[in-house]
Design goal:
Blueprint: H1 2-30, H2 48-55, H3 61-71, H4 89-100
Helix pairs in contact: 1-4, 3-4
The structure holds heme C.
């Protein structure tokens, strides 16, 4: 019985930990980001895992991503530019924070 309770507790905390990431993937889908981006592989835009690698340790990395998400980005990853996205500043910040966790 005791170990069952521990297993349930472990499951529950895993679920809680997974929720914010899932919520942000849903936001990325809802905002059309996933038409051009995948977490693990390059599509039209770079893989979010690559973007995370570049910015998560960089000073101001999340701010750079937030600006790019809001205003678009050109010439950093290849010849294809990213147009400005239809997101609020709050949503852009949330997406940048999420990408940093990938
Ligand atoms: C029309 C296709 C397209 C859509 C839609 C799109 N992106 Fe991009 N994204 C790109 C391309 C292409 C690049 C690479 C731009 C470059 O080389 O500077 C990019 C780059 C990025 C970068 C890196 C920017 C940098 O400063 O290095 C981030 C972060 C990003 N996208 C997030 C998002 C998010 C979040 C969304 C949804 C709100 C989104 N993208 C929607 C195509 C897209």
């Amino acid at each position: 019985m005791k170990s069952n309770a521990a297993a349930i507790a472990a499951c529950f905390s895993a679920l809680v930990a997974a929720t914010p990431a899932a919520a942000s993937l849903d936001l990325a889908k809802a905002k059309g980001c996933t038409a051009c981006h995948d977490v693990a592989k390059k599509v039209v835009g770079p893989a979010y895992s690559e973007v995370a690698k570049k910015y998560k340790a960089a000073a101001g990395g999340q701010a750079t991503m937030t600006t790019s998400i809001l205003k678009g980005s050109t010439g950093k990853w290849g010849p294809i530019p990213m147009p400005p996205n239809k997101v609020t500043e709050e949503e852009a910040k949330k997406l940048a924070a999420w990408i940093s966790t990938l």
